[in-house]
């Protein structure tokens, strides 16, 4: 059924019933996809991590990864749109973490399409935010295996696999120091907390034991 649909979609019938020259033989064949999906210029920015001064936990910021997707025809007849365009579906990511633990496999959705014999740029989250928190991934790195998935308009599944790396920065701690309050009392806090309490911050790593508050 699919082969018949592909033949009708890829070719036109002449008035006399003969096939018009230029019919896409790759679409007629039914022997798998007539195009190849390729990737290049994969960029995965480091994940930033910062200590929350209230909870003490790490707050992660995930910046989308970018990749160029290419639709390569296998023969001269496979460069025709729209039948050989690739509709992108998603990317499946597996991680090998430096400590042998951490985040399990993750899948991200991919939208858009890649025109026959063309290219496009896609963005996706390289890791789930909740997984970073649950796995306590601050300061760790992982080798990635990424499988990109799509389907041609004519109905064939196409995939390609590539590698990458993911770096999660260490959880930066918020510096603290002596804070002199209006009452003359001293406590140790971050500069932001000290200012919010109308105090005078004495500098990072200073101590109330050696800082007089008048």
Describe it.
- It is built from four helices and 13 strands.
- By secondary structure, it is mostly beta strands.
- The strands form four sheets. Strands 5, 6, 7, 9 and 10 form a five-stranded antiparallel beta sheet that branches. A three-stranded antiparallel beta sheet has the order 1-4-8, with no helix packed on it.
- Residues 1-29 have low confidence and may be disordered.
Keywords, separated by commas or semicolons:
disordered N terminus; 13% helix; 40% strand; 13 strands; elongated
N→C terminal distance = 88 Å
- Strand content range: 35-45%
Unreliably modeled segments: 1-29
Helix content: 10-25%
**Tally of helical runs:** 4
Order of helices and strands: HHEEEEEEEEHEEEEHE
**How would you sum up the major sheet?**
5 strands, antiparallel
Shape descriptor reads elongated
* Overall radius of gyration: 28 Å
Mean pLDDT: 83
Structural class: mainly beta
How many beta-strand segments? 13
């Amino acid at each position: 059924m699919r082969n018949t649909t592909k033949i009708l979609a890829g070719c036109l019938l002449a008035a006399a019933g003969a096939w018009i020259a230029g019919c896409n033989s790759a679409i007629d064949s039914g022997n798998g996809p007539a195009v190849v999906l390729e990737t290049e210029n994969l960029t995965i920015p480091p994940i930033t991590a910062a200590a929350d001064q209230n909870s003490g936990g790490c707050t992660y910021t995930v910046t989308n990864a970018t990749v160029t997707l290419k639709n390569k025809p296998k023969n001269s007849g496979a460069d025709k749109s729209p039948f050989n365009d690739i509709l992108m579906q998603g990317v499946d990511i597996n991680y090998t973490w430096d400590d042998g633990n951490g985040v399990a496999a993750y899948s991200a959705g991919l939208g858009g399409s890649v025109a026959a014999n063309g290219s496009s740029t896609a963005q996706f989250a390289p890791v789930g935010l909740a997984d970073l928190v649950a796995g306590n991934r601050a300061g760790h790195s992982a080798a990635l295996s990424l499988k990109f998935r799509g389907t041609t308009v004519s109905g064939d599944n196409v995939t390609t696999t590539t590698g990458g790396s993911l770096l999660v920065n260490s959880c930066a701690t918020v510096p603290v120091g002596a804070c002199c309050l209006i009452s003359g009392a001293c406590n140790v806090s971050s500069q932001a907390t000290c200012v919010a309490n109308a105090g005078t911050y004495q500098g990072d790593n200073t101590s109330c034991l050696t800082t007089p508050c008048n």
